[in-house]
């Protein structure tokens, strides 16, 4: 089954088109000392996207440096663009996720955003070895089927 999956991904045009390519030269890493969650946030503006419902075309992206938790808000206009590396890194993840989910329906990016964020929040991060969801709430995320058809984890939570 693993071989079949690998073969599929190698032949999938969409998978190959959205693969991570590291083009930036290696840089010295700098330790950022953070005492607790929400101590430091990165903020950036992403867009413009194709005009969506509500006349929105930009995203305001906030990233907590400690947990890597991403908050986004779809907005109609911007007045200034300031960014930092933590938010720019989150922006790459959001854009990659949206590209994978949208090919023809470019104006539906707002509707697809929650699924992209769910995927990011429930995937272990290489720097923390934990999911942003776990770092934020100190519990693993539950999928909706666990709530509708109670599992022991949902019952005893």
TrEMBL record:
It comes from the Eukaryota. SUPFAM superfamilies: Ribonuclease H-like. InterPro entries: Gypsy_RT_Integrase-like, RNaseH-like_sf, RNaseH_sf. One of its GO terms (molecular function) is nucleic acid binding. This is Gypsy retrotransposon integrase-like protein 1.
